[in-house]
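Reading is simple: each integer encodes one residue's backbone shape. An example follows:

___
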Amino acid sequence: MLLLIIGGMAALAYLLSQLFEGEGRMAAMLWIEGCGLSLILPLLAGAVALRVFRGVAAPLADVMAAADAVAEGDLGVRVEVPKHSSGEFGRLVNSFNRMVDELERADRQRRNLTADVAHELRNPLHIIQGNLEGILDEVYAPTEEHISATLEETRLLARLVKDLRTLSLAEAGQLPLSQEPVDVAELLSDVRTSFSGQTKAAGIDLRIEIEGELPDPIGDMGRLELVLSNLTANAVRHTPSGGSITLRAEPAKEGVCIVVRDTGTGIPAEDLPYVFDRFWRGDRARSRADGAGSGLGLAIARQIVRAHNGHINIDSELGEGTTFTIFIPTSQLATHPS
């Protein structure tokens, strides 16, 4: 390229010298200028290439190196946003870092889920194993009491496995949902009927409030009843005798709003961001034997509501009770595999 530029400038100098009737001084000046340009232009091209490399090639190389590290299992790698990169490459780096953040969060949740499931399975399995070994070793007779205790633990295991399957299908967007108009008033009535005996024995007032004319959202009646049952069961566990639980429904813009409110112990503000996590329990000292659930009820409730294109919120204060607010739209659901 340099030779071509020099040759081109020489030819131009010759033509101009001929144009100016062969003046030697003019030809020499043109020749010097041509040689200067032939040297300056490659330097300028090199400077431009270096700037392009710093702004494009270097950040791209950093992203590729980080991608290789992620592929090898290093989820702690991040790419520093280059100072002199263009906006597009800055967005590329930010998108990559967000992707790795999400992968790291998912991996942490997977590890936590494995540990939580192992913990939840260990206790009932130890009880079942201990009871059966005691019977086989004739430590105690196979009485109805021991057999009933073992059977109850197997039921708890079956419930845990069922809840885990429901939660995993919902999180993967594969939870089968029927699509039919849901009578919300009937839904609340069914839930009250299911818990009437339990709340009466606990001295809790369970009431229903219907505000206005309710639309019929499209959804799965059984799944929504499971959501309200999980929330109501949670309210019963944390509401003392003499308290109340209110199931309220009112029309909302393009949907219906369902509220489950209790006058129970409430939840500390620092725990509110985690109440919908798997295996979260408000009182970590309580076990299922004390009436605590598996810790999956609220997580399942949120995923089922999301599957209905809705959302669920919580508002709670210690000593003032807890309120769950659910919005279910009246629009048609997305297609779910059966």
